[in-house]
Structure to design on (834 residues):
């Protein structure tokens, strides 16, 4: 007897960034944060195969688990501050932890199938088609995917964002679509620190997201470890929590409801900058943005002039997420392609949604916009607001529980559907 | 009749950074700041030749003035916010402005020689032996030098830091040696915003300064324009002014008086980081530090481990100033030379004070300290606390008023005296 489920999860991009976790064990944000979810073309895929009565499948399980570990190894999924030894064997404890949570929750809600799962073997395979450990919330998408899949398996209905949060703080945001709130909650256990949808993706269908993946040799610090350091050492964070974020959350909500791109863009950029400011104010300082990121920021401000046609945000990494309205997308992409020419090894420079790009030459550009050195960007991914995790038909594991491709090629070049 | 004066001025390095000018016209800092001055080996040289009864020397004057402009053109010396047109012809207005101030002050204090100067021609020649426009306060050193020289010319004695401030905000600090306070003052005209010496250079003779000049193609925004933007747009600056700086000033003063290097170093690094944090929080954000600067910061923290043997500070540029005690200098330099190998075009990689450097190889280094790509740093300059501007014997102009070398070679390679 075998049960399979396959889910594509979404990547989420913080607009007003939650920086800082209140407490270690239950991952609760210091702040309410507002998140935009991007569509499934920027996705993480997970398959869980649960097999019964199969003895001695250890070798295979180890292989499958390894695939999952590949995703999360660059992130700190262990509760911050807990003894490291406990989470040394991360893969197993992870599976146990999340699974037991799902089982507990299923029992609580009287879900039908959980009892059949006791004592079973879990084959987990996870792949993602965007860079991990690069501040694009891959671990969040991974956990959201895993929890969503497990919930489907155990027949758990309803809100699973609280469970997802226990795996990776921001994972609770990835289980929903559109614009999402991550609430701080008031319970010390974190049980009310959940995500809720502010507006669905259909509210602003014209909004486009362009991810600029930069070429970087730099090793990044995992975002959870970084956040811990910032909470402990940044003096400026106190001001950010007390003053800046609360007023910005209100303003950006208003901007989203009104679909006021100028206001939305300016607040998003300012909050991204302030997030990185408190990272720099940490001790030792955290530098997530690099020279390529700085070049993108300067490009956006030069492109905009006194208007706001495009806005940037950077999570805990050097890659940029740009926001732009559909009507301005093709001109933006054309200008980016001119100013940031691809390197020699850039195949499929432009990925995601297909866009017709007009020809741009120097005379179309603003004064001072010169092409940068080739290859500063690895590639661009065009996407739009996400609609949340979805069960899809494709599988990552064979019906025997073996991974189909341990190192599958990226699927980002495939046409948008 | 001819009068000449030649002065070497000092470069100053802000420890607790004053960021933000209260008002445009009289350059008054928003904050009291504490500055360390470095010795004259990191110097700016200026010569003023005043010639009488010389008709039609325009061509020569133009050449001399041009040399002076070369120094200041990359800086905003015009009062921030004033109509740009007024300062279009920067060289002339500059000379006039500073000269008239010196004359006025001389008149006020009854200095003897000022009347002889009326209607004379000024030949000004200025050279510096460290990078301009790179956040090493070259314009401050330049103005300090010019004002000090002019004061000598007109026979003005006593405090000239208030006059120097009118040229470049931080120039008032460069006219003194040792550790210097720049006071905010309370007068709206800025007349009491002057610099005073906290302790002379002789207080901490063991302190060494290592300037790491990074290879950078990046164009920097002038520090005055940048500060204006930060004051106008950074929300975090308010917290910095109200909370962080006042307490840090007290603590670092204590650390300096006690010669407590650990405390001194930690505060210096934290304040540098916070300064750059509020720069990043500006809108559009200001990125003075680049990938090379980040590599230096990470290097220092790795080198220190749990101790503080070396500390960094970055002004409005990508170059680093490191502080270290004499006893640890040679090991630090050896490690830097290993981790940051010189590029092919680096001549005289190590400049300034002569230091015997022990051999270092990989086994001497801490885990994870790998050599970076060659040429990340252009060169290193070793110096110590400065003793203030000094009249020296060498001249930049011939007695006829012509510049000796319009593009003179750097003298930084010459032995320390």
């Amino acid at each position: 007897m075998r049960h399979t489920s396959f889910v594509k999860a979404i990547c989420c991009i913080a607009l007003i960034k939650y920086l800082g976790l209140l407490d270690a064990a239950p991952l609760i944000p210091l702040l309410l944060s507002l998140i935009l979810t991007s569509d499934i073309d920027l996705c993480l895929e997970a398959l869980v195969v649960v097999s019964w009565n199969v003895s001695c499948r250890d070798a295979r399980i180890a292989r499958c688990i390894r695939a999952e570990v590949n995703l999360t190894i660059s992130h700190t999924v262990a509760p911050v501050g807990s003894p490291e030894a406990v989470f040394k064997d991360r893969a197993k404890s992870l599976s146990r932890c999340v699974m037991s949570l799902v089982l507990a929750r299923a029992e609580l809600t009287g879900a039908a199938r959980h009892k059949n799962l006791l004592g079973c073997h879990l084959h987990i395979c996870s792949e993602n088609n965007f860079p991990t450990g690069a501040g694009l919330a891959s671990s969040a998408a991974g956990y959201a995917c895993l929890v969503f899949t497990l919930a489907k398996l155990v027949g758990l209905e309803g809100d699973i964002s609280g469970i997802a949060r226990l795996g990776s703080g921001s994972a609770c945001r990835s289980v929903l679509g559109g614009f999402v709130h991550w609430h701080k909650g008031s319970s010390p256990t974190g049980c009310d620190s959940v995500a809720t949808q502010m507006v669905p993706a259909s509210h602003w269908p014209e909004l486009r997201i362009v991810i600029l993946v930069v070429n970087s040799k730099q090793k990044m610090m995992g975002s959870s470890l970084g956040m811990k350091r910032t909470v402990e050492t940044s003096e400026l964070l106190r001001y950010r929590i007390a003053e800046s974020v609360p007023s910005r959350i209100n303003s950006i909500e208003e901007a989203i409801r009104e679909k006021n791109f100028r206001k939305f863009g300016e607040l998003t950029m300012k909050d991204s900058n302030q997030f990185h400011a408190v990272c720099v104010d940490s001790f030792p300082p955290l530098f997530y943005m690099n020279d390529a990121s700085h070049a993108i920021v300067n490009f956006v401000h030069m492109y905009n002039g006194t208007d706001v046609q495009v806005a940037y945000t950077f999570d805990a990494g050097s890659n940029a997420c740009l926001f732009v309205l559909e009507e301005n997308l093709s001109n933006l992409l054309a200008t980016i392609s001119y100013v940031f020419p691809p390197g020699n090894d850039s195949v499929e420079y432009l990925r995601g949604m297909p866009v017709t790009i007009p020809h741009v030459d120097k005379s179309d550009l603003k004064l001072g916009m010169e092409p940068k050195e080739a290859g500063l960007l690895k590639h661009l991914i065009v996407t739009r607001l996400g609609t949340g995790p979805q069960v899809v038909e494709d599988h990552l594991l064979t019906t025997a529980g073996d991974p189909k491709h341990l190192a599958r090629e990226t699927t980002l070049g495939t046409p948008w559907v």
Remarks:
- Chain A has two domains: 2-200, 207-384.
- Chain A has eleven helices and 15 strands.
